[in-house]
Amino acid sequence: LGLVTTEYPQLRYLQLSQQDDNLQFAMVFSSPDTPFYDWVDEKRVEKYKTFFGPGVDADVIKVDKDKRLVAIRLTIL
């Protein structure tokens, strides 16, 4: 992911959903040492999109502020 922290974010669970006939897949991470603004950095989000291939959109969502859970959500277009 390229996130510089003292401790790497840990994958907690995967979530599958569907919205507007598009399949969505979210990887939810516990991220106690990485600020949310690092996750949503525009250049980083563009890397997520290209890493997962053509026909896939990516965005980052805050799942739980108190538990510091963040997700990379992939949408198959």
Structural description of this entry:
This protein is an alpha+beta fold. Helices cover 18% and strands 47% of the residues. It is built from two helices and four strands. The chain has a four-stranded antiparallel β-sheet, covered by helices on one side. Strand 3 and strand 4 (69-76) form a beta hairpin. The radius of gyration is 12 Å and the shape is globular. The two termini are 22 Å apart.
Note the main attributes of this structure.
77 residues; alpha+beta; 2 helices; 18% helix
Summarize the structure.
By secondary structure, the chain is an alpha+beta fold.
CA gyration radius, whole angstroms: 12 Å
Q: In sequence order, what are the helices and strands, one letter per element?
A: EEHHEE
Which segments are poorly predicted (pLDDT under 50) over 5 or more consecutive residues? Answer: none
Helices and strands: which structural class?
A: alpha+beta
Q: How many β-strand runs?
A: 4
Main sheet: strand order:
1-2-4-3
The largest sheet, given as strand count, sense and whether it forms a barrel, is: 4 strands, antiparallel
Helix content: 10-25%
Distance, first to last CA = 22 Å
Our estimate of the beta-strand percent is over 45%
| Bulk shape | globular
Q: What's the helix count?
A: 2
Task: Quote the average pLDDT.
Answer: 90
